[in-house]
Amino acid sequence: MLTEVHVPDDVSAAVRLLAGGATAIGGGTCVLPWLNDYASPPTELVSLRRAGLSGIRLHGDTVEIGAATTLAQVEHDDRLEDLNAVVRSIASTPVRNLATVGGNLFARQPHGDLAVALVALDARVTLVDETGSRELPVEELTNGAGLVTTVTFELPRPGTFRYVKAARRRYNSASLVTVAATVTEEEGTVTGARIALGGVGPRVIRAHAVEAALVGQELTADTVRAAGEAGRGEIEPADDAYASAWYRTRVFPVHLRRALLGH
Amino acid sequence: MPVRIVNLKVNGVDQAFMAKPETTLLLALREQLGLTGAKRGCAQGACGSCTVLLDGAPVVSCLVPAATVDGSAVATVEGLADGQELSDVQQAFIDGFATQCGFCTPGMIMSAEALLARNPDPTADEVNEAISGNVCRCTGYAPIVSAILDAARRRRDRAGQEATR
Amino acid sequence: MARIDSEYFRDERSSDFTVIGTAVQRSDVLGHVTGRTEFMEDRTFPNLAHLKIHRSAHHHALITDVDYSEALKVPGVLRVITYKDVPENWYGVLRLIGIGPDDEPVLAEDRVLYKGEPIVAVVADSEAAALEGASKVKVTYTELPAVLDVEEAMLPETPVIKRAGTNYFVYEGHHARRIRFGDVEAGFAEADHIFEYRYSSAPIEHAPTETTGCIVVPQPGGRLLIHSNTQAAFFTLDNTALTLKRPFTDLQVKGGTVGGGFGGKVDVMVEPLACIAATMTNRPVKFVYTREEEMQVSSPRAAERIYIKDGVMNDGRIVARKIMLYVDAGAYARHSPYGATKAAAHLPGPYTIPNVYADCHCVYTNRTPSSAMRGFGVTIADFAIESQMDQVARALHIDPLEFRLRNAYRDGDVKAHRKVASGTALIEVIQSTAALVGHELPEEYRAMSSSTPRGAGA
Q: Minimal CB count within 10 Å: which of A91, B9, C355, C420?
């Protein structure tokens, strides 16, 4: 049962409230559906709407996004072309106007596609708690780690970021398989690959085996197929209302291919 | 149970009401301000029946704790018509037979208004994307999309006429 | 607007239509686009109380204990309602037209037959307190094996889940709604080919955008005013009065615009409990399904399983058709006995077949009770029949439209239900459809007519 909604004006007030056991919300799109229709233990919410955590800043190629920046702000920011498409694949306009970048990092799979992209981009978060602040790769972020205030990453070099989300419908549907990758090539050979997967596990999966299978290879139908085979061992898909685990396993290599080869 | 006074500018009018912690923007509009155009279809942010404009942007009002938007401007379907004069989107919905049971209509219209404010000349696909968060279970999507495209034409024609006047 | 083709029936009725074929505006459209149309939940009442349900966690179980003491301690909780508070706990919506037995409890007594079955209702000052209260009810169960498959439910060794003694609805002493016409086995014996296929469908949820609900307001004189989004106001009034054991005149149902129904709002699920709660508290009481309840426990269209066996001659005439049809009613009858009857009425499709045998079973399982939805009984039967027509035509290398035309019923034919067909127009509809899509039919088929008796002319 909701017992209080706090709307602090700054981060330190938010941190204090969270230390007292309150729950942080960005846009509320993950937490409110539960609170609206289900019984819950006494809950105090801390809305980050006015905590000064909204905004997108570029320092050279370094992007810094405030945790309370909405997905819609990212969607309409011309400087973040690679992420525009990622965000448009998430939910619908009236949800994206509420949902935040920080909140998406904690969305339960098969949601949280932006987090998948941010893992592929090797993004880091700044976490604040009563003891101070620290940085952590998005990949290592867990529930309860602290209040995320910013997300930081380097803009990928043009053409190196790939993203495919397969869903039941073209718009506004949760992930069946999401593939995000940054792949660098020199003279046709893959020199670096950072690949993250959504929809195929209880959390965002960093596809180390896929990466290892690709580095040093040319991107061809054969090498990508082999990488997909390698990746089958590191995905842990589940049955849900959108698709069966069997289906996700079956189509994972197809969407990996589409992400990496474009067809 | 702590109760707050929340101030909103709703359809251009300053309003104040008491909000309990569980009072969402949707419930405040419906139960405190008597504006029942926005509907509760799911309370999960999934059906879009509760769509209103919050500081100009369409949001699912069922997921917004009222206390968090104190001081904001809200536009609802009730504020679109100027007296008996309907908005272009409303009139296009009538002329294009774009309603069936009517439950999704207010949310659908607010999503359309938001789209046209940002993009005066959308393609059919852009309309599909803009209303992808609004469920019409009577499945009257084709006339809805046509009506929104028609409303866009009306607005452009009107803007053209006003420019040449 | 598409042109209305009145040519075929020109001798039967005049075509001076003034409305059909024209665009007529809805009377309610202005309210829809301005947000002023009044739906059930758009009415607000001072001192409103809210009702939420504690539901079964199991498909099939005996209830050994219900402890609602913690629910009563939740601040804001006003009352807890159990089956003992329901004046006539057992009901069946079709009792109004003499169909029984009353097989469903308003609130579960000693057992639950499906996951999500209502056990206890909690009435509270706020929705949040009602949810909290309902979550605090503790039910102790002894789980029983669940029957989840229609054919398994019909087997003699399967445990009987229904107190009436059979896992199927009994139609005038029979295990199914039956059709017996001609001699189907003789038909199969004379046929050149036998084709048998199996068809099945999943349950389909109506998912109306407005969830099922009502608000009951006690009136000064003791009557109850029920604001409901039911699709069937009088059905709701009469059934609710029977459950309350009160005269029909004690209740007033105020319906109105329904935010999507599709057959999903005819089951009288919320009004009786809201009336009891309103009477107990003497306050207006709202009982509206959450979205999850709408998806999980409101009746869907029944899942069906249909076997069709056809005996067909080389020239494409169907001489025998045997159909075994199973409607999965779920745990309780609701409208499903009627649905299975409708399926039987629709068989063997709009075709003239001299030997027909059909058993349409209305089967009980431990699934969510199914009920009415847009043409229920007919819709899935049609899917099966027309899929069968396509499969048989292809197997015989006959054009599927020609195959249908060969077997199409005509005026004067005696149907399997021993009714003489009249006003048939299937042949003309197929001919027109073929022309519209550019599917060329041979002259012999273009010359066919519903009014020409079979065997005459072409």
A: C420
Closest CA to C332 of C363, C357, C310, C355: C363
Distance in angstroms (rounded) separating the CA atoms of residues B45 and A31: 11
With CA atoms as reference, report the closest residue to C334 among C199, C143, C203: C203
Q: Domain residue spans in chain C?
A: 49-144+207-296, 177-204+300-424
| Non-local CB neighbours of A50 within 8 Å, separated by 6+ positions | A7, A8, A9, B68
Closest CA to A248 of A171, A172, A162, A178: A178
Please, what is the angle between helix C378-395 and helix C336-346, to 10°? 30
Which strand (E) or helix (H) includes residue C386? Answer: helix C378-395
Q: Among B46, B78, B101, select the one facing C257 at the smallest CB separation.
A: B101
- Identify the CA nearest to A87 among candidates A67, A68, A111, A106: A111
For domain A56-154, give the CATH number. Answer: 3.30.465.10
Separation of alpha carbons C114 and C184, rounded Å: 38
Q: Across the beta sheet with C77-81, what order do the strands follow?
A: C77-81, C118-124, C49-55, C285-288, C213-218, C224-228, C251-254
* CATH number of this structure's domain A163-261, picked from the four choices 3.50.50.60, 3.40.140.10, 3.40.50.1860, 3.30.390.50: 3.30.390.50
**Could you tell me the two tokens for C391?**
């499969």
On whether the CB atoms of residues C390 and C317 are closer than 8 A, the answer is no
Chain C interface, mutation test: which of B137, B139, B141, B146, most C Cβ atoms within 10 Å? B137
Q: How far apart are the first and last CA of chain A?
A: 49
Q: How is residue C399 annotated by DSSP?
A: -
pLDDT in tens for each of the 458 residues of chain C?
A: 566 777 777 777 776 778 877 889 999 999 999 999 999 999 999 999 999 999 999 999 999 999 999 999 999 999 999 999 999 999 999 999 999 999 999 999 999 999 999 999 999 999 999 999 999 999 999 999 999 999 999 999 999 999 999 999 999 999 999 999 999 999 999 999 999 999 999 999 999 999 999 999 999 999 999 999 999 999 999 999 999 999 999 999 999 899 999 999 999 999 999 999 999 999 999 999 999 999 999 999 999 999 999 999 999 999 999 999 999 999 999 999 999 999 999 999 999 999 999 999 999 999 999 999 999 999 999 999 999 999 999 999 999 999 999 999 999 999 999 999 999 999 999 999 999 999 999 999 999 999 988 765 44
Domains of chain B: 4-79 (3.10.20.30), 88-164 (1.10.150.120)
- Nearest residue on chain A to C134, alpha-carbon basis: A39
Question: Tell me, which fold does domain C177-204+300-424 have in CATH?
Answer: Aldehyde Oxidoreductase; domain 4 (3.30.365)
Residue C172 CB contacts under 8 Å (≥ 6 apart), including other chains: none
Burial (CB < 10 A; 0-12, 13-18, 19+), residue C2, is exposed
| CATH class, range A2-47 | alpha beta
- Total residues found in chain C within this entry: 458
The domain defined by C49-144+207-296 folds into Aldehyde Oxidoreductase; domain 3 (3.90.1170)
DSSP β-bridge partners for residue C324: C307, C359
The amino acid present at A125, given as its one-letter code, is: V
Cβ–Cβ gap C134/A39 under 8 Å? yes
Least CB–CB distance from C209: residue in B34, B77, B135: B135
Interface test with C, best of B40, B50, B113 (most C CBs within 10 A): B40
Whether the model clears a pTM of 0.80, i.e. scores above it, the answer is yes
List of chains touching A (3+ CB pairs within 8 A) = B, C
For A33, nearest residue in chain C (alpha carbons): C291
Please list the alpha-helical segments (H only) found in C206-358: 233-244, 271-281, 291-296, 336-346
Which segments of chain A belong to CATH 3.30.465.10? 56-154
